[in-house]
Amino acid sequence: MNSSKKLSVLILFCLLSTAAIQAQKTYEPTWESLDSRPVPDWFQDAKFGIFIHWGPYSVPAWSPKGTYSEWYQYWLQSSALFGNGNFKGDEVTQYHNKKYGEDFSYYQFGNLFKADLFEPDEWAQLFEKAGAKYIVLTSKHHDGYTLWPNEQANDRGFAWNSMEIGPKRDLVGELSTAIKKTSIKMGLYYSLYEWYHPWWQNAKPRFVDEHFLPQIKDLVQKYEPDVLWADGEWDMEDDKWKSKEFLAWLFNESTVKNSIVINDRWGKGIRKIHGGYFTTEYESEAPEFTKPWEECRGMGFSFGYNQNEDAQDYNSPKALVLMLVNIVSTGGNLLLDIGPDGRGSIPPIMQERLLKIGKWLKVNGEAIYGTRPWKYSFQWSEGIQNYKPKQHYLGGDFILKQTVDPEEGYAVKEAFFTQNQEAYFAIVPKWPGKELSIRDFKPNKGTKVVLLATGEEVTWKQSGKDMVLLLPEYDPNKIKPTDLYAYTFRITK
Q1: Which of 213, 191, 189, 211 is nearest to 202 (CA)?
Q2: Which of 53, 153, 204, 292 is least surrounded, with the fewest CB atoms within 10 Å of its CB?
Q3: Are residues 344 and 426 located together in one domain of the fold?
Q4: Could you tell me the CATH number of the domain that includes residue 422?
């Protein structure tokens, strides 16, 4: 055996040994041990996922603008409300009583949640066209209704799952099967707590031992998700949830122990400290994170479908693309939510937004997928940096104010930067004119620059510490409408 073959065999042996050691590692029920498990690489490469909030709350599908419609049961029964705006608190209660009557229980929406127009393969095709690399479906929200047949869903004294009430279908199973025919990863959201479960209200240890733990294990073992997205953790410490014990089981014994990705919502005060990847919600970029992270938000202000939101409440395709670019430039993923209606139709405006994002990604995706942050995430113009309005939930228009429509005196992000092994990428939110200066950057003399929208090579020069791209005359006939959202320049390494 010659030396090169010996080296190849040695490298292969080392790789297999490393993989075997990783696979055999036993995780202890401590954060020190659990946090040592790396987040699988595919997640950090994915960059764009689709969140799906769907359940009985999709039937009334109403809450005041600036609030979450999927919280309908809580708003109704507590006569409380929070979000963007000034509320009396009883808006949903008043709406419900007028629309359905005071004696109409939230639980009656279960029978009205038919999902009769739900076509899982059509959903999967839409998500592929959108350029999404993973999805996360709400298998159970805070109302406790499960989108799969589950024994614990009925322990409140009546059936409360999609196989017995409403659709009479295993919605998690059907969508999982459809998604797994594609290259998209399948994720499941699961709420730890339930607002009005009698054990949660009066016997929390029993709720944890007899409801939460067996139910979440059933979900994992039945559907083997790629992502397990916990939520509803904030009212109780992780020790009381027995989260560490559950995660040790997940990483050591479950059928997805070597592949599952988890987030950071496993107990009061745990977010952005422990768990898998870190999560933000209706925020912006997070350049200070040292772990993979993800921003989740709706296209408007609600996760669940809210028929009270109008076209102007939805973020424009340009704003959504720029939000994605902004997040990716600082190392994050965007989990963008859609809310199907109670019959299983995805509202056309949501489909349109997804398809336009997908068309932009088809041309510019190499600057997004599989990339990592560069030495600078973005380049500011002169002025006051980081404009953000004071809102409970940060609206998507902040990114337009930071790029193409600034307030007087505020700076804009002139360019965003990403990189992979082959190239750097400069993504600009508007056409720069005749020149684009990339400050404090000196590439090699043989570096080539290409405008991805047209495939044209762009000449450049060095001007002191700056690289200056000498741009061709702008020709709108060469640019597709979706490419107008942001222009990408590939700069080879």
Answers
A1: 211
A2: 204
A3: no
A4: 2.60.40.1180
Asked, for residue 2, whether it belongs to a domain, the answer is no
Identify whether residues 350 and 403 lie together within a single domain: no
CA angle 46, 227, 41 (to 5 degrees): 40
Residue 423's DSSP bridge partners are 492
Nearest in space to 222 (alpha carbons), one of 165, 153, 277: 153
- Structural domain includes residue 10: no
Number of structural domains the chain divides into:
2
Give the integer Cα–Cα distance in Å for 307 and 294.
Answer: 27
* 4 has pLDDT over 60: no
End-of-domain residue from the set 367, 392, 415: 367
- pLDDT tens by residue, 447-462: 999 999 999 999 999 9
Beta strands, E only, 48-204: 48-52, 134-140, 185-191
Comparison of pLDDT for 362 and 445, the residue scoring more: 362
Taking alpha carbons only, the member of 167, 178, 195, 256 closest to residue 73 is 195
Is residue 303 domain-shared with residue 363, that is, in the same domain?
yes
CATH number at residue 317: 3.20.20.80
Residue 305 CA to residue 338 CA, distance in Å, equals 7
Q: Which domain holds residue 160?
A: 26-367
Using CA atoms, how far residue 409 sits from 111, 200, 285, 349, in Å, is 54, 51, 21, 34
Same domain, 357 and 390: no
Distances in Å between the alpha carbon of 442 and those of 445, 460, 464, 491?
Answer: 9, 11, 9, 11
Domain boundary among 302, 334, 367: 367
DSSP conformation class of 27: P
Per-residue pLDDT at 19 exceeds 70: no
Q: What are phi and psi of 394, to 5 degrees?
A: -70, 115
Read off the tokens for 281.
Answer: 């919600």
Question: What are the phi and psi torsion angles at 423 (to 5°)?
Answer: -155, 160
Residue 5 domain-assigned (yes or no): no
Q: Structure tokens of 239?
A: 């020790």
One-letter amino acid identity for 46? A
CB atoms within 10 A of CB 381: 12
Same domain, 191 and 233: yes
pLDDT digits (tens, 9 = 90+) for 226-242: 999 999 999 999 999 99
What is each CA distance from 428 to 286, 318, 335, 411, 425, in whole angstroms? 19, 12, 22, 14, 10
